[in-house]
Amino acid sequence: MPRKIQHNQCECGNKKQITSEICRLCYINKMNSLKIIHKCSKCNVEISKSSKHSRCINCYRDDIRNNLIQKDETIGQFKYKNSKNPNHFVKIRQHARRIAEIHGLLDNGCSICSFPFVDVCHIKPIKEWADDSLMSDVNDTENLIILCKNCHWLFDHGYNSIELIKNFYINNQ
């Protein structure tokens, strides 16, 4: 047998459950008045409550720019010495992601299917570059392409152009 909900009046005049202190409308108004807007720790611009960061997007991107690897550094300096480790290019890939973020390449999603969760891929793979190659050449925006996991897998396994991957999807629908 369903339990009957008893109602009482809130101080605003609306009905409320006897067990609650205020009605739903008063509760929503109270929560909206409690929204905390914090300020960027660098420039004091207001940031919404939903942001988990202490800095605004502009300060965040400035910090990324300031912490980039120097142009004259080579990829050999950033490879892990144990080449059997599948992640021995991780620092080079992290740098590529920072470059893509600064240039706003990540904003539109995958270059092929527009899926929002993406990888930053190298058109010419990192392993094909000599150790004395400059990071600025390896992670140049002309050598980077933004792809989702599925398109990235296709790109790495023989479909090495955007047109080939698009044709793959068209032919296999």
Largest sheet: 2 strands, antiparallel
User: Major sheet: order of its strands?
Assistant: 1-2
How large a portion of the residues is in β-strands, by DSSP E?
A: 5-15%
| Approximate helicity band | 25-40%
> Using DSSP, what is the number of strands?
6
Q: What coarse outline follows from CA principal-axis ratios? A: elongated
| Count of spatially separate domains | 3
Instruction: Return the string of H and E elements.
Output: EEHEEHHEHEHH
- The DSSP helix count reads 6
Report the uncertain regions: none
The averaged pLDDT comes out at 80
Distance between the termini: 51 Å
The secondary-structure class comes to alpha+beta
Radius of gyration: 26 Å
What order do the helices and strands come in, and which of them pair?
Elements lengths: L6 E3 L5 E3 L6 H10 L4 E2 L6 E2 L9 H10 L23 H13 L16 E4 L12 H4 L5 E4 L1 H8 L5 H10 L2
Antiparallel strand pairs: 1-2, 3-4, 5-6
Helix pairs in contact: 2-3
